[in-house]
């Protein structure tokens, strides 16, 4: 399970979003952290919703958004916990982040069926507001 998630993170780092989406089940349920501006579409259902509601907005609103210091932790019941940090600069304000985050992934039959993000939403909000 960790290998699947690792491959998805590597694809994201390379900008290969189609490969990331291919790792998702057609019926994935994706949740952004409460308090995150991207949580306005929670839950995102299906890869297209994730693409349009999350990845598309990240690309349009953030410069050099990247995930760093990713550590994967295998869990029972086809789950993986990732601890990591977000780096990037919010385009509208020019403010940068170095935010602590965690991702809880749930898989079934080799595809991601569930995602829950946890992140320092205060830091994100401060970057997004002048």
Automatic annotation (TrEMBL):
SnoaL-like domain location: 6-113
One of the Pfam families matching this protein, by short name: SnoaL_2
Domain of life: Bacteria
Transmembrane segment boundaries: none
InterPro entries: NTF2-like_dom_sf, SnoaL-like
Protein name: Nuclear transport factor 2 family protein
